[in-house]
Design goal:
The protein has helices spanning 13-20, 33-37, 42-65, 68-83. The chain is rod-shaped. By secondary structure, the protein is mostly helical. The longest helix has 24 residues, at 42-65. Helices cover 63% and strands 0% of the residues. The relative contact order is 0.04.
C-alpha cells in the first residue's frame, strides 16, 4: 500500500488566492460598443474620404479652368513666355 503525505505535495498558493478573490463584474455596456472599438476598415474609409476630396477639388479646378477669364489669362501668359 502506497501512502502519500501532504509534505510531498507542492503548495497550493495560487489556487488559494484565486479562491479568496471575488469575481470581477464587468460593467454593462450597450451591444454596439464592441463594434465602435473595432477599427477594421478604417483605413479604407479614410482612403475613400481622401479620394472624394480629390475628385471634388478636380471638379472645381476644371470649372475654373473652363471659365473665359482664366483661359484668357493663361493664353496671355503663354504668349508672353513664348515672345521672350
Amino acid at each position: 500500500m502506497t501512502h502519500t503525505t501532504t509534505a510531498l505535495r507542492p503548495p497550493r498558493r495560487s489556487s488559494q488566492r484565486a479562491a479568496r478573490r471575488a469575481p470581477r463584474r464587468r460593467p454593462r455596456r450597450a451591444p454596439w460598443t464592441p463594434r465602435l472599438r473595432d477599427d477594421r476598415g478604417s483605413a479604407t474609409a479614410e482612403y475613400a474620404v481622401v479620394i472624394l476630396a480629390a475628385v471634388a477639388f478636380a471638379g472645381v479646378l476644371v470649372a475654373v479652368m473652363r471659365s473665359g477669364e482664366v483661359q484668357a489669362m493663361l493664353s496671355d501668359l503663354v504668349r508672353g513666355a513664348l515672345s521672350l
